Amino acid sequence: MVDTRRSGLRGDPGHGEGKTIVVQRTGILGALNQEYRERLMSLAREVSFDVDERIFEEGGEADHFWIIHSGSVALDVRVPGRRPAVVEMLRPGQLLGWSWFVPPHRWHLGAEAGSLVRAWEFDAAVVREMCERDPELRNELCSYVSGVLARRLRAARVRLLDLYAPHGAGEVP
Fold this sequence. Notes:
Elements: E1 12-13, H1 19-23, H2 27-31, H3 34-41, E2 45-49, E3 54-56, E4 64-70, E5 73-77, E6 85-90, E7 95-96, E8 110-113, E9 117-123, H4 124-133, H5 135-164
Helix pairs in contact: 4-5
């Protein structure tokens, strides 16, 4: 497992000027009402990842998640005897990591920075605890994360068919 808190990361705990304004209309934060958005962003820590830096590995403990502010992240799957297969590229505003929300809280894919990445990092245990205390927040996050999960599974399926099926995936309706 890659420790995202090692000295290679440059972090600034919470309180970044304007960070809520920049992301409030995108991704997970755009799906939350203002109160939940502000509560979640109060927990954020700004971090960065260098080009080609591994962020997490498949099977590792999903103890954090990120909202990408700038840069790109490749989600990949390791296939024995082959190079990792990139199944999706994430861009600014997108959620990096959904496994933190779903037991057993283990990563289902790996992630690697495709460029210099700046992101807001969240401690998954703290957010899950907040969800336990506030079922409405949990429901809003569950709705959003389940949509992300469905899109990522579809993207992974199509990409793997393109890579390994005899005639590729073609268009999936």
